[in-house]
Design a protein that fits this description.
seven-stranded mixed sheet; alpha/beta; binds S-adenosylmethionine; three-stranded antiparallel sheet; protein dimerization activity; O-methyltransferase activity; SAM-dependent_MTases_sf; O-methyltransferase C-terminal domain-containing protein; Rossmann fold
Amino acid sequence: MSSIEQLTVLLNEAAESLPAQGPINDEKRNAFYAAYENVRKAIETPIDAAVRVLFGGYDAVALRVAMDTQIFNQLATAGGQSKSISELAKPSGADPLLLNRFIRILAASGLVKETGEGEYASVPLTGAFSDMSPLSKSAFHISDKAQMRSLSNANSLAKLPQYLQKTNYQNPNDSWDGPFQFGEATNLQYFEWIEQDPKHQEAFNTHMTLQRMERGPNWFDFYPVQERLLDTDKDTSKKFLVDLGGGVGHDLAAFTEKYPDLASRLVLEDLGHVLADVDKQQFKLHPGIERVPTDLFQEQTVKGAKVYYLRTVLHDWPDKQAKQILKKIHEAMTNDSVLILNENALPDEYVGGFQARVDILMMSILSGIDRTCKQFHKLLEESGFEVLGTYRPQTLSPGAGTIFEAVKKH
Ligand SMILES: C[S@@+](CC[C@H](N)C(=O)[O-])C[C@H]1O[C@@H](n2cnc3c(N)ncnc32)[C@H](O)[C@@H]1O
């Protein structure tokens, strides 16, 4: 049995030696995170737990201030050299004293390194938040005012307890009338709201391309596309796959790397202003793929395609709107068509902390919900579908996609 002293020594040694051993695969890293969390839960004091839970928002604020004042850009390009807080403050004209108050939070959480009094240098994570990294777009999107976890800025999240009190603790069930509208004092739905801010819209679009970056294999590598879809694809004059709410086409771009011959039978659908950002991305969408500006709540114009595919679209919507979206797809499907949902379905029990938090994020901005497998089955059955199967990758990383394959109920 290890004592706390022995464990402390072991972990400190590991922190020194592990980075030199090279990349660690997802399975091993996730197993370690789980063990590490178990140790934390076993020894954490009530005060430490309260601080951890209640003070997370301050890190997000510090991250955003450092991004806005070019701290990550400056440190990431300094070649590991230390920079003083006065130097770092120059490009933004910030008061060094003020900036230092934020940067020391980032140093404590390991995003930069403190090398002396008021002096900082980069660590490998620093580059992830510089402008060169697409992850900085995610950080911008998540820390922007609608979503900031800081209690002073996250209007919809900060006012969620008040909203729920007002609605007698019912699940929000309308994306146009929920915590977001209450918190932001707006009539706009969240997607309408970000459309008004092109910088945020672009950040959101790129953020979506990163959503699955570390979440294991692509859906078409663990779902039997050949056997379930291609072998039963009788009418090749029709479209093969429509990616609804496919964003800037990142999923189809990956799909055409494996199935380039299908490109002219693929359709990317999303809101017109989102499709306008397709060619701004770091990847190139196959030119054969048709781009069709679409509103999920209007008639589906591509009829009788073999596959209607939605990835992490339904979790944006409560049942009321999810059913309206499914109805439009149902109407366009023939008996040969297959509906494929690729969703972060939650387990029925022991939901991980990250997934549980994302669910509340969905609630607070979209009245959305991260559904469990059971809840997806129920939603599909109530919308006129029969679920033929569910598929998951062999190794499950947190948030890995689950594929639901469904057809029209006869
Ligand atoms: C959570 S993102 C998912 C994007 C992509 N499928 C993925 O998994 O990365 C939801 C997508 O739905 C789109 N969307 C939202 N409302 C829509 C609507 N009314 N009609 C069409 N697309 C919509 C958004 O623009 C966004 O690209």
